[in-house]
Amino acid sequence: MKQKQAIVLAFIVAVVIATALGSIFQTQVNLAYMRDIGPPIDFSARIGNTWHDLTHFALLYLVVVLATFLIAFPLAEWIARKVPGHRMIWLVLAAVVSLAVCFQIIDAVAPMPTFIAATRNLGGTLIMLLAAAIAALVYVLMTPSLNSTLDNQETEQ
After folding, report:
1. How far apart are CA 24 and CA 119, in angstroms?
2. In this model, does residue 147 exceed pLDDT 80?
3. How many Cα atoms occupy the beta-carbon half-sphere of 112 within 13 Å?
């Protein structure tokens, strides 16, 4: 039972990290775009916009990340059981690829050209995906019992 609680806690932490970092990253990418076409943006404006996005955009982005990770993480764990010894790689890959696919799906069905402005180009998309990769790494580090279980399976085979 404690292992399941640790997994749920690690999952929640990963979703929160991906959401918070993704929100912060997209704010800064968007402000960089704006700086390129207008006046300089001072530090207080950056902080204010970041806070605004954390309290508004992040709530919507949380749903996107949660839905994506609910599919990606169990799939990655299943693959990691089939191909032991590479759990971290599978989870990071699953988080990044699933979120990238989700961005494409959202952009295809959203009425505006790009739902998340930071994902308009490859650089912005990669920065957003970095948040997912960091979150997956934290999840792996918070669930070491799963790592050791998979390592034990690998040595038994």
Report:
1. 13
2. no
3. 7
Question: In 3D, which of 136, 115, 135 has the Cα closest to residue 124?
Answer: 115
Q: Which two tokens stand for residue 75?
A: 């799939």
Residue 39: alpha-carbon gap to chain centroid: 31
pTM: 0.87
Mean pLDDT value across residues 128-143: 97
> DSSP states of the chain as a string?
-HHHHHHHHHHHHHHHHHHHHHHHHHHHHHHHHHHHHSS---HHHHHHHHHHHHHTHHHHHHHHHHHHHHHHHHHHHHHHHHSTT-HHHHHHHHHHHHHHHHHHHHHHHSSSS-SSGGGGSHHHHHHHHHHHHHHHHHHHHH-HHHHHHHHHHHHH-
Q: Which two tokens stand for residue 115?
A: 């739902």
